[in-house]
């Protein structure tokens, strides 16, 4: 949940040093955490550390990160876990003699015990973080062994928990040592330089050739060398693991938009187009169908927005195949995992492929003998690697903390899967499948139109309802997951309490809260029966004074008692994620803007939750 970068180069590659590159990478990593930032570099054989609480741009300007003349540097953006956000807790952390500087993502479980042991030996700690035990441990071993790699290995052997580390040392001043366990870390391969980073997006302007490290791997990079060991300490022929990422620099920058979130909302037509093109040519859907057909039970698991995509899949599969799919929130896996049997299928949805809750659910389901189908946006990430097959969305990097284009890309991939499954089990015939797939092909166009139609209205409505303290987002049937996604976006980006539930539940309790002006947004799927039922729910809210806002297909439900109509392109009800989601994404974006908040950096949140 924090961001790590390390760059080591020759003077030829980067005559002024690497500081400017490190700062640029940190800015690309800011979405990973943004309560403090810091860098460390080797300058004239010594370690220089600059770090403070605050946003990268401010801290870097104030402390002159880019003025450090170093060819070997590490940097960090922090999302606090152990120790409050403060200057002293910001990374990098050093040992007593300042021989080593370390940045870390993850949580060291046995840090308290190690710290007590080190303090008894005379080590003086200067932060409240779990991370600081590592440089002191390495220092301790270095005194005895006189070799950085051996000392690093020994220290890693004592640590329990999750980590991605990058470390520099005065003893080997052109090397960055690294280790990975349960937190993402990649090595970026250059000419005259090499890098390590927690995210591909951080180094995309430097290189597209990367090795995605696996749990237990560690090693070092220098400007000309890369050495990687596996979890048993055996050297790895890393050249076999090099992949070339397709993302471009443009994908990972704002490209003239004021925020990543807006850029990513606007990019959805292309993200859907690329996702479709990718699914058509890869064999993952076929493999997934085989797993699904052989399964007695099908589960779908995920967290947050990805869980909403999972709920959409479950509804769709019930409609198209009459198959019951069991959705469960990944962090609640303990309640479900005992019901999973050998050969059952578990679909794990995760844009990052690294969410710890989802990874845990996958691992436990595998222990029960389940087959795992991953749906992810990040190639070679942990969840795909541990799954039997992966359907990749191709939304490009998502930097805004709130998931937007990855949600609609996931729903499109799952729509595709659900149709093929229905066809394979004979629930629909060839011509019905063809018709549905033709609908799927319309998704990029539909979402483009939906964005055009809803953007001005979302901006206008945001100004009217920004001061609301609470609201409901309601729907029925296939629209409920979209309503749930809408409520999540309004909460996390607009800071308004928003609750979503199937509209029929109003009369069983929630309607008690309705008073004059209480905003209620209705996601109305384009289905006559759902329109009819929702019309009744709109009426019951309206008659109690609610401000009723309907998101619905153009020219439908003219007689609905709506105060505000948000029309979306006319499309099949099953395509509701592509027609109705953009409005709610844009509404939450503009609520944040109205309130003066940064939509890319919602408070208390960070992208990719790699802790339980
Ligand atoms: C909300 C959001 C989160 C993520 C969740 C799962 O906008 O982004 O709710 O959807 O943390 O993340 P992934 O999909 O990476 O597993």
Give the tags.
612 residues; 3 domains; alpha/beta; Rossmann fold
Summarize the structure in words:
With 612 residues, the protein is α/β, with parallel strands linked by helices. It folds into three domains: 3-250, Aminohydrolase, N-terminal nucleophile (Ntn) domain (Glutamine Phosphoribosylpyrophosphate, subunit 1, domain 1, 4-Layer Sandwich); 254-441, Rossmann fold (3-Layer(aba) Sandwich); 451-599, Glucose-6-phosphate isomerase like protein, domain 1 (Rossmann fold), CATH 3.40.50. It has 19 helices and 24 strands. The strands form four sheets. An eight-stranded antiparallel β-sheet has the order 3-2-4-1-10-9-11-14. A six-stranded antiparallel β-sheet has the order 5-6-7-8-12-13. A hairpin with a 3-residue loop joins β9 (186-189) and β10 (193-197). It binds fructose -6-phosphate. Residues 303-306, 350-352, 355, 358, 402-403, 488, 492, 608-609 line the site of fructose -6-phosphate.
Task: Quote the average pLDDT.
Answer: 94
Using the alpha-carbon principal axes, give the shape.
globular
Architecture (CATH level 2) name of the largest domain: 4-Layer Sandwich
What is the count of β-strands?
A: 24
Output the CATH homologous superfamily of the largest domain: Aminohydrolase, N-terminal nucleophile (Ntn) domain
Rounded to an integer in angstroms, the radius of gyration calculated over CA atoms is 25 Å
Query: In total, how many domains does the architecture comprise?
Result: 3
Oligomer: single chain
Question: Compounds present?
Answer: fructose -6-phosphate
* Percentage of residues in strands: 15-25%
């Amino acid at each position: 949940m924090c961001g790590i970068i390390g760059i080591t180069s020759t003077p030829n590659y980067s005559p002024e040093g690497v500081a400017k590159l490190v700062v640029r990478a940190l800015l690309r990593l800011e979405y990973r955490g943004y309560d403090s930032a810091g860098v460390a570099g080797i300058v004239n054989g010594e370690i220089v550390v600059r770090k403070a609480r605050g946003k990268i741009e401010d801290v870097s300007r104030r402390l002159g990160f880019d003025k450090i003349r170093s060819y070997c540097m590490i940097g960090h953006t922090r999302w606090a876990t152990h120790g409050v956000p403060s200057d002293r807790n910001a990374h990098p952390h050093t040992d007593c003699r300042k021989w080593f500087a370390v940045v870390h993502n993850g949580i060291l479980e046995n840090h308290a015990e190690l710290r007590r042991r080190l303090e008894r030996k005379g080590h003086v700690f200067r932060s409240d973080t779990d991370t600081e035990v590592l440089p002191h441990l390495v220092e301790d071993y270095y005194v005895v062994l006189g070799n950085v790699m051996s000392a690093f290995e020994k220290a890693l052997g004592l640590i329990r928990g999750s980590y991605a580390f990058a470390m520099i040392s005065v003893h080997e001043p052109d090397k960055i040592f690294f280790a990975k366990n349960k937190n993402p870390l990649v090595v970026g391969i250059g000419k005259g330089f090499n890098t390590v980073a927690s995210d591909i997006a951080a180094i995309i302007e430097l290189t597209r050739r990367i090795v995605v490290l696996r749990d237990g791997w560690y090693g070092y990079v220098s400007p000309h060398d890369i050495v990687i060991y596996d979890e048993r300490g055996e050297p790895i022929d890393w050249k076999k693991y090099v992949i070339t990422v397709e993302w471009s620099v443009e994908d990972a920058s704002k490209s003239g938009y004021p925020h990543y979130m807006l850029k990513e909302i606007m990019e959805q037509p292309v993200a859907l187009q690329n996702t479709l093109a990718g699914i058509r040519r890869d064999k993952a859907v076929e493999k997934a169908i085989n797993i699904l057909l052989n399964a007695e039970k099908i589960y779908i698991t995920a967290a947050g927005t990805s869980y909403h995509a999972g709920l959409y899949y479950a509804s769709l599969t019930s409609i198209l195949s009459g198959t019951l799919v069991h959705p469960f929130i990944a962090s609640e896996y303990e309640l479900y995992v005992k019901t999973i049997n050998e050969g059952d299928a578990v679909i794990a949805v995760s844009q990052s492929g690294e969410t710890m809750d989802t990874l845990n659910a996958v691992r436990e389901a595998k222990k029960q003998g389940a087959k795992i189908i991953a749906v992810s946006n990040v190639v070679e990430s942990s969840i795909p690697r541990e799954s039997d097959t992966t359907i990749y969305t191709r939304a490009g990097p998502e930097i805004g903390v709130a998931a937007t284009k990855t949600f609609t890309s996931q729903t499109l991939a799952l729509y595709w899967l659900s149709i093929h499954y229905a066809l394979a089990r004979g629930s629909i015939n060839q011509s019905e499948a063809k018709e549905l797939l033709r609908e799927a092909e319309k998704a990029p166009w539909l979402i483009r139109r939906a964005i055009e139609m809803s953007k001005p209205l979302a901006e206008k409505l945001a100004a009217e309802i920004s001061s609301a303290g609470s609201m409901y987002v309601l729907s029925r049937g296939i629209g409920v997951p979209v309503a749930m996604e809408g409520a999540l976006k309004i909460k996390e980006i607009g800071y308004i309490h928003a609750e979503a539930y199937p509209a029929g539940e109003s009369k069983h309790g929630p309607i008690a809260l309705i008073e004059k002006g209480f905003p209620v947004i209705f996601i109305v799927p384009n289905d006559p029966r759902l329109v009819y039922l929702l019309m009744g729910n709109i009426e019951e809210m309206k008659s109690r004074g609610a401000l009723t806002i309907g998101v619905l297909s153009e020219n439908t439900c003219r007689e609905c008692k709506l105060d505000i109509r948000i029309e979306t392109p006319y499309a099949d009800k099953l395509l509701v994620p592509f027609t109705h989601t953009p409005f709610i994404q844009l509404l939450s974006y503009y609520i944040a803007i109205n309130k003066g908040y940064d939509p890319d950096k919602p408070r208390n949140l960070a992208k990719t939750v790699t802790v339980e």
